[in-house]
Amino acid sequence: MTGALLLTEFTERARRHHPHREIVGYDGGDEVLRYDYGAYGERVVRLAGALRRIGVKPGDRVATLCWNHHRHLELYAAVPLAGAVLHTLNLRLSAEEIAYIAGHADDRLIVADPDLRHLLDGVHPELGVVETGDAYEELVASGPVLEGPPDRDENDLAVLCYTSGTTGRPKGVGYTHRGLYLHTFAACLADGHAISATDTVLHVVPLFHANAWGIPFAATMAGAAQVLPGPHPSVAEIASIVERERVTYVGMVPTVAVDLLDHVRRTGTDVSSLRALVLGGSTPSLELIRAWEDRGVPVFQGWGMTEISPMATFTRDPFPPDDPGERHRRTQSQGTLLPGLAWRIVDDDGVEQPWDGESRGELHVRGPWVATSYYLGEAPERFDDGWLRTGDVATIDATGRLRIVDRTKDLIKSGGEWISSVALEQALLADDDVADAAVVAVPHPRWQERPIAIVVSRGTTDAAPILERLAERVPRWWMPEDVVLVDALPRTSVGKTDKKLLRARYAP
Amino acid sequence: MTGALLLTEFTERARRHHPHREIVGYDGGDEVLRYDYGAYGERVVRLAGALRRIGVKPGDRVATLCWNHHRHLELYAAVPLAGAVLHTLNLRLSAEEIAYIAGHADDRLIVADPDLRHLLDGVHPELGVVETGDAYEELVASGPVLEGPPDRDENDLAVLCYTSGTTGRPKGVGYTHRGLYLHTFAACLADGHAISATDTVLHVVPLFHANAWGIPFAATMAGAAQVLPGPHPSVAEIASIVERERVTYVGMVPTVAVDLLDHVRRTGTDVSSLRALVLGGSTPSLELIRAWEDRGVPVFQGWGMTEISPMATFTRDPFPPDDPGERHRRTQSQGTLLPGLAWRIVDDDGVEQPWDGESRGELHVRGPWVATSYYLGEAPERFDDGWLRTGDVATIDATGRLRIVDRTKDLIKSGGEWISSVALEQALLADDDVADAAVVAVPHPRWQERPIAIVVSRGTTDAAPILERLAERVPRWWMPEDVVLVDALPRTSVGKTDKKLLRARYAP
Prior knowledge:
Two copies of one chain form a homodimer. In chain A, a hairpin with a 3-residue loop joins strand 23 (434-444) and strand 24 (448-457). Among the domains of chain A are: 340-408, Luciferase, domain 3; 411-506, ANL, C-terminal domain (GMP Synthetase, Chain A, domain 3, 2-Layer Sandwich), CATH 3.30.300. Helix content of chain A is 29%, strand content 24%. Chain A is an alpha/beta fold. Chains A and B meet through helix 1, strand 8, helix 6 and strand 15 of A and helix 1, strand 8 and helix 6 of B.
C-alpha cells in the first residue's frame, strides 16, 4: 500500500466528483461571482502552470496578501499544485512587519490585492508582485495547464504561515502536504466539524490566518459549496450572505459573533440555515453561546494554534445533557481532542498531571499535523521530543474535556497563588453591564502581582457597581486592584485582545 | 510535522478518552459480558505483553480462527500492538484450505475457538494453538503490560487477510499500519459511514472477513459502543440484540438482510434505533432497499474489496431526490468514491473511458489503503503502476456514481454483445415470485455464450410465468436459455453466491 498524501489531490477530486457545486465570491459592492468546482479546477491548473512558466520552482515561497475572495481560494490550491509553498501574509500587519516576514520567508513572488499593494513598498521579491486584477487574470488565461500532481514528497511543505506570537519576532510554521492532508480528513470527521458535501461554508476567518482553520481544504475535499465574503466584510454583509446563500457552516472569533448577534437581533436576518457556528481564537462567554443557541443556531468551539495546522479540539458532545446551562458550559470548554493527536499537561517540573479537571499544567500536543519546529528552527525550546509546548495552562477532566485556564504568561501570581486572567474575564463578562473585558497583571510590592481589569461597559460610566457584583462571583483575593473603563479593547492582527499592548499601557 | 501513523494508537485513545463506553459480548446462550474501553484497553496491553513473552516477534503472523466475540476484538488490537501481524482465518473454509493458508502465511501462533479447533488438525504453528477459553484468560492475566506503541514503521504490516478469489489458490492481502489508519479516518467521515462516539455498532459481518470492513478500528477510534453477537448468530439473535442494545449501525450482506427483514416483519422487533443499515458484498435488490426504508431504517451500500482494506465507496447522497424510486436506485448503485482514493475505468485496450454512465470498462482503484501487491507477490498482473485491477466491469456517471455491471468473468458474451449477469439477476429479483436468483453463462454453438438462470422461487414450481414477466423487463436477446428452480443458492465462505459452483454444476 503506497500512495503519497498530497494535499493537492483534493482539488482534482472536487473537479471530477463535484463539478457543479458552487464557489461564490462576493467582490465588494453588489458584484457576485458564481462558478463551480469544474471551472475552479480549470483555473487552478492553469494558474499552477502559469506560476511554473514565470519561474516559480518547487519549494519556492509564493506569498499572498489578499482578502477572502475566490482568487485567494484559487491560490490556496494552485501554489501547492505548482510544487511551491503558499505563504499567507497577514494584511493587518504594518508594512515594516510584512517586510520582515517576507524577507525571513524569502518569498519569491507575491500576489496582492491592489488596495493592499502599499503594504509591500519595502518588499522586492525576485519574481515581482502580481496584483489580483488584470495581471492575475492574464496569468490564469495564459496557463499552460499543469497536468498531474506536483513533483513533491508528502513531507515537503505546502503552506507557510507566520504567527505573531507574544514574544520576539514572528515565527514561521511550515505545513507539510501530509500534515494538511490528515488535518483535512480530521476536519470532515462526523465527530468533528463534519464538513460535508451538503454544506455551504462561509469563510469569515481571514484566509491568511492559520489556513483559515483548514476549512478551505476540507470543503474542497468534501465538495461543499464555498462562499467568500470579499474585502472588509461587515457583520451586516456577513448576515446578509448567510441569509442569501443559506450558509450552513461558519467559523469566527467570539468578538465577531457578538457583533453579528447584535445585528441579527436588530434586523431579524434569517440565520436558520446554520447547522454550526464555530467559535475559535478565544474563549466565548456563556452569554454568547446561550444567545445564539436561543436563536436556534448550534454553537461549537474549536481550539487550536497556528502550530497545530490549526485544529486540535472540537466541542461536539456525543451525549449532551438536558440542562442547557451545563450544555453551554461544555461548549465553553475547549472540547475534546481530535483523533490522531495526543496531549498531556505537565507541571513546572515536567511531571505529567492527572486528568481530574483540577490539576493544571502546561498543555503539550503531539501528532502528525503538529509542528515539530519553526520554519528556520527558531525557539527550539517550544518543542520537546515531538511534543509542542503550547504555552497554555490547562486542565483536562476524566472525560477528556480540555479547559484552557490561561496563557502561561497571562497567569497572575498573587501572594504565591495563581489567579487566572481568563476566569476573571469570564466573571466580568457575566455582568450585564460589561460588553468586553481584559485582565492583566500589575507589579505589586507586597503580593508580587495583582490583577487590574480593563472593561468596555454597555453605557455606565461608573465601575463601582460592576466591582460590587463581581465580588459576589469570585474569591476576595481575585478582586482587581483597579478597573479602567475604555471604549474598546485593542485587537491583535488576528482579532484577539492585544494583551501585550494593554500591559504596555496599564502595567508598565 | 512527524508522527507515525500507527493503527494501535486508537486503542489507547479509546482507553483514555472513552473509558466508560461499552463493549458488549453475547457469548451464546443467555450469557452477556459487559465491559468498557477502560477494561478492554487494560486487557489488550496485557495480552500484547503476553504475546511477546511467549515468543511472538515483531512481524510474526498471529492468526485467529474465531467467531465474533470480545476476545477476537481484543486480538484485533493486541496483535498489532505487540508488533505482530493479525491474520484472520476464515472459519467457513475446510481444514485443507486453512492448512494451505496458514502454511502460506507461515503463522507462528494461532488463537482458535474450541469448537473450531478441529479445523486446525493439519496445522502445527511453531508457537502452538491457544484456545479462547482458560488458556487465553491465563495469557491475559499473566501479561505483562506492554507499554507504548509497537516498535514498527507505519509501512509495516498490521493485518493480513486471504481472499479466496475466483481463480487459483487464495491470496494474501497485507494491510499496513498507515493504510488502516487512513482507512479508519475514512470510515468516520461525515459523508461516509460517519462512525461516531454516539454510535452503537453491531458486528454481524464475520471479523475474519476483510477486517469486517474496518468498522472495529473505526468504532474504537470514535469511541462508539461495540456489540459482538457471538458464535453462529441467527437472524433472531441479531434482531433481538438490535432491539436490546439500541444498535445504531450495522453492516451485512444482502442475503442476511433479506432473512432479517422477514424475521422483523414476523415478530415486530423494534429496529427503530438503526440510523444505518449498510449492505455490502453484493448488489442488493431494489425491493430489499425499499422494504427496509419502509420500516424507517436508512439503507446504504458500501462497495469494496479485500484488496482495498476493504472500503472504496459509500452511497450517502448529499441531495437525495424526493422520488423514493430514484432514491432507492441510487442506493442500489455502488455509490461515490471515498476521499483519498482515485479510480478509472478502462476498456480492453487500456483506454480510459468517460464518466457518462454508459461507457463501461474494468474498474481500477488507487490510493493509500489499496494493495499494490499480494502478500508474497502472486498474480502481479492484478496490479499496474499503483493501480489495482479490480476485475469488476463498471460504469461511472457524471456525478461520480459507480455501477458495477459485472465481474469481468461473469459477463456473458452473446453474439458479440455483452449481457450483464448482475442486471439480469436484478430483473429477476424484481419479480414477486422470485426470492433469489443467479445467472451464469453456458456455451452456445451459435451465440458463443447464453445466459441461464438459477432461481429460488417463493413457492411456485412453474418457471414459465416468471419468464413471461421477465420478457417485459429485459431485451429479448437477454432472455435466459433455461430457468432452473432450486431450494437455495450455494454460498461462498463469505456469503456471496458461489458462481464457481453454479458454473461447475450447470454450465460445464
